[in-house]
Write a structure and sequence with these properties.
about 280 residues; alpha+beta; Phosphorylase Kinase, domain 1; 2 domains; seven-stranded antiparallel sheet; two-stranded antiparallel sheet; 9 strands
Length: about 280
């Protein structure tokens, strides 16, 4: 078997082991799990590269993990280890296996003796794969977020807003946060979609009143109609409502209450590619 393929298999096994450690720790970075995630690839990689009889196996095993580190550093904070595992255990495991395979194959391409054309071709293909992942990291991160929302039963929805452009899409846990800007006057809209978890628009609105006592922000809540509440703060007005299993908030520092209320009927299911390219 080609040595590059054997190196890639070794890296894939290391990636699978990382996914398994993350799964056993249930995503909580305690000291033991953190040490295993950071330093486990080195002895495991040494063993696998030795068993695979790779030329210069020690150098390949030493360089391999740094390829994965380079991937996550290049992806900044958008595509973290935790974000990848949000795809689920088996999908996240496959992605980590692919990262491990590319990392060790790249290390093998650097360290092992081979023809120059083969070396350049191998390194070029792997580098192109990394660049492609980095250039679409926002889409990948959004796809992971929608997977979490789907498992929580939260609909992936967004408003249909002609004349607005999406400036930011982000999320945490099973929630989605969207920022829009109206093109003609730069008026802003902040959209939040999160699980209801037994919360009603009324209780969500009143929770903010309790928080305002601590931060000194004058806040009032009032009912507009059945299931729709408006929260008014010093600088922001927010409309709260439900949409299926989701609690939806539409807020703005500049838009009127009527404009915010008009957004609610426009919510519709949206795919990650449409969301990422809006």
């Amino acid at each position: 078997m080609n040595a590059l393929i054997r190196a890639a298999i070794a890296g894939a096994v290391v990636g699978l082991a990382e996914a398994a450690i993350f799964g056993l720790s249930r995503g909580e970075y305690d000291l033991l799990a953190l040490v295993a995630l950071l330093f486990g690839p080195f002895p495991l990689g040494m063993l696998l590269c030795r068993l695979g009889r790779l030329p210069h196996w020690g150098v390949v095993a030493a360089l391999g993990p740094f390829g994965a580190v380079a991937f996550f550093v290049g992806a900044d904070s958008h595509l973290s280890f935790s974000t990848i595992m949000e795809f689920g255990e088996w999908r996240g495991g496959l992605i980590l296996m692919a990262i491990g395979a590319c990392s060790y194959a790249f290390a093998a391409g650097l360290a092992m003796p081979m023809h120059r054309a083969a070396r350049v071709s191998a390194l070029g293909v792997i580098a192109a794969a990394y660049i492609a992942a980095w250039s679409t990291q926002d889409v990948i991160a959004l796809a992971a977020r929608t997977q979490v929302m789907a498992r929580a039963g939260v609909p992936v929805i967004a408003p249909d807003l002609p004349g607005y452009r999406l400036t930011r899409a982000d999320g945490e846990d099973a929630s989605l946060s969207l920022s829009y800007e109206r093109q003609r006057d730069h008026s802003d809209l902040i959209i939040s979609v999160e699980p209801k978890r037994g919360t009603t628009p009324k209780s969500a609105c009143e929770d903010r009143i309790a928080d305002s006592v601590l931060d000194g922000t004058p806040t009032t809540c009032r009912k507009v109609s059945a299931g729709i509440w408006i929260r008014t703060e010093t600088m922001r007005t927010t409309v709260l409502a439900t949409h299926g299993n989701a609690l939806v908030e539409v807020g703005s520092d500049t838009a009127s209450e009527a404009e915010l209320l008009a957004v609610l009927p426009t919510f519709r299911p949206i795919g990650v590619w449409e969301l990422a390219h809006s």
